[in-house]
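Input record (one chain):
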Amino acid sequence: MEWYWVLLLLIGGLVVFMLLGMPVVFAFFAINIIGAFIFMGGEKGLFQLMRNAIDSVQSFALLPIPLFIFMGEIMFHSGVAARAIDAIDKLIAKVPGRLSLVAVVGGTIFSSLSGSTIANTAMLGSTLLPEMYKRGYKPQISIGPIVAVGGIAMLIPPSALAVLLGSIARIPIGDLLVASIIPALILAFLFFAYIIIRCTLDPSIAPPYDVSDLTWSERLKPLVIYVLPLMSIFIVVVGSIVAGIATPTESAALGTVASLIAVAAYGMFSREVFMISVKQTLRFTVMTLFIICGSITFSQILAFSQASEGLVGLLEAAELAPLTVILVMMVILLFLGCFMDQVSMMMITMPIFMLIVEATDFGVGDLQQTQVWFGVLALMMLEISLATPPFGLLLFVAKGVAPAGTKMSEVITSVLPFILMAMAVAALLVFVPSITLIIPNFIAH
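The corresponding structure, as predicted from the sequence alone:
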């Protein structure tokens, strides 16, 4: 069977299973079973699939995933994260468009904790948008931050999705985590600057309203109590990696211990909080391990069927410029974001994309540096794709939870400036890839 028919069978079968209503994780696993049987020697292929499953979940490098998820769950269910957002709200009470800024900060926190941008958009949209509309905020400055903020959350450690991408794409997880920090800070700066400047130039879209007069002491005290300790957790996780005193797995364990200490210190630790956090962690972790098992077998099927060799050969024969190659991959991710979430996109695209990355000279550096750079860029595009007009999934989620009367055109108008800013940062990473390598190179030296 020609390699392109193999790809058509695998991708087409996956789409058919999903259209039949099968959960994406199980659809991916089902197509792996079929592919392993056909292309890897019948029963021998199925036995190899089982061996892959056992070997893949035994990897010590996967431990950060449940640990990062648990950190987020314990912060979320204990209420510590909500208090941190309230503290930030009090601090910036006089800043133009402060509710939109709170949406950016709150969205970053909750999206990184939940691991689902779709759930994050629904939660923030249903809680913050009514308050914004009540205060006279116009849709163009209220909906956009809520939809677009997930891009920051995917990049800032601890990010379980970044660890998942690194595991699927075989990218060094520690380098990927720290390489994402500077692009995330650039994106956050642009979002904040846009909101403040826009609201300053046109106060009518975010009219100021009376807030209780707080002294600087009353504003700073919640910040010191509820925000700085959480920042220390971030420092523990990232600082231990940057300083070279801990691996990503060890830093995740340190961060988990620090999170438990913080929750207990606030007097918000209870048996109920612990149990629900563990249950949610187990649910997401099991799904993640299924994904990793499937991705390894999928890569082997591509190799055994010579589909990977044919795809790389086609790319070499086409003699496409590296910039064209990267643009094609990014456009594919933008297209897929109209129909599926980030995890599903990772499963389908990364095994194939990494073959292309390894076969193309993008002028970034050695193979490991190229993989890290592409991983950061892929994380950004995975998030942008979900909010890209006119069919991005998050647009419909935001429209569904927005107050009655909100038009889809208003949702798109609000989101578009944030998408353009995120695309500008992605373009910056394409043309100046060294931005993503600053911290990894610092650690290496």
